[in-house]
Amino acid sequence: MKKISDYNLFRAFRSTNYTLYFIGRSVSQFGTWMQRTAVVWVVYSMTHSAFLLGLTIFAETFPSFLFSIFGGVAADRYNRYKVIKITQIASMIQAVVLALLVITGHSIIWLIIVFSVILGIINAFDVPARQALVNEVVADKTDLPNALALTTATANLAQLLGPALSGIVLNVFGAGICFLINAASFGGVMVSLMLMRLPAYVPKKNDKKIMEEFAEGFVYLKKTPEIGLMVLMLALVSLLVLPYNTVIPVFAKVVFKGNASTFGYITSCIGVGAVAGTIFIASRKSGARLKSILLICTIMTGIGLIGFSQIRNFPLAMVFAAIAGFGGITQFNVSNITVQSQSAAHMRGRAISILLMAIFGMMPLGSLLVGTVSQHIGAPATVLCQGIAAIIIAIVFAKFLMSKPKKVITDEAVTADFIEEQSA
Where are the alpha helices (DSSP H) in 283-410? Predict the structure, then answer.
């Protein structure tokens, strides 16, 4: 009888450490999406302001951009296992305090924004270390692309199920319970970390300054255009296209005249597309033309957003929401796989942090932009413009995405070049 790891889609589960990592992250991401859904719904219910929705998302994601410099260096310089344990405990405390504030009736907007900022800072250290740790928990490195895609699937599956359950919990028990469930979910990560059997950590001797180390990452991407151009494209998509989720509560309450459950359904349909996109990437064999897939999926994102923005039949609009979800997550998957599998081991943490900067730096700015524009021209017209922007970005990068892959620099030569340039 075949085991699940015998199938191509799940081959990364041959590694026990990765299996534990996957289970722990799945539980945690489920709680995280419940909290995110509850936060944006509480803010919109209290203010009815698209701008404050954008500001709330900005408050969580922009600090991740500011502190990702330190998070990327920490992932390369220190024990990633211990960094993740610290960030999980900090995230748990943040969720518990937020729950107590809401349950006791102290849920004022500025406090929610402050705790969103705190979570953003925690994520700046958590995400680079967590992403880079995947390389350490996968025994067979040929399974790495599959492992990365399945890891992203944990977030996508949570995006599918978390908001739907959150909508029910919000209506029946309130936002505070959503936050407590999220706090409890971090226990899953802690258990999985304790059960892992990783090689003993060998401290790295490093006399360089943090900013010098981080600058090496930019030099590396500049001299590795196969990675650098992909990160640049993702930055533009993160600024102009992906922040469409900022106005999803407006579609739920105003356009489709629904409630918290309607918001959960829309977010879950986007999650259905995201899960499908992750399965699609995870099932690809080694050597697949990822750049061509990225081109097609960027266009799909544009088509999905255009359809969703203009159609008022709810079931049909959900089909286009799923298409947008499929295209959007596939763009991140392809970029993440490219950076992690093609970057040099000693540069991986910093390369990942720059990739995250392209998301966490641009998306909050995009959320503010989308929230502001939506106040003037309405949510449907704003999302329509975002769909058109996705197609324009695909056209601009089409030559690069249709070209044959070039040799990637994965040795110490880039670092040596950087030192040479600094000396000069």
Answer: 290-310, 314-342, 348-360, 362-377, 379-396, 398-402
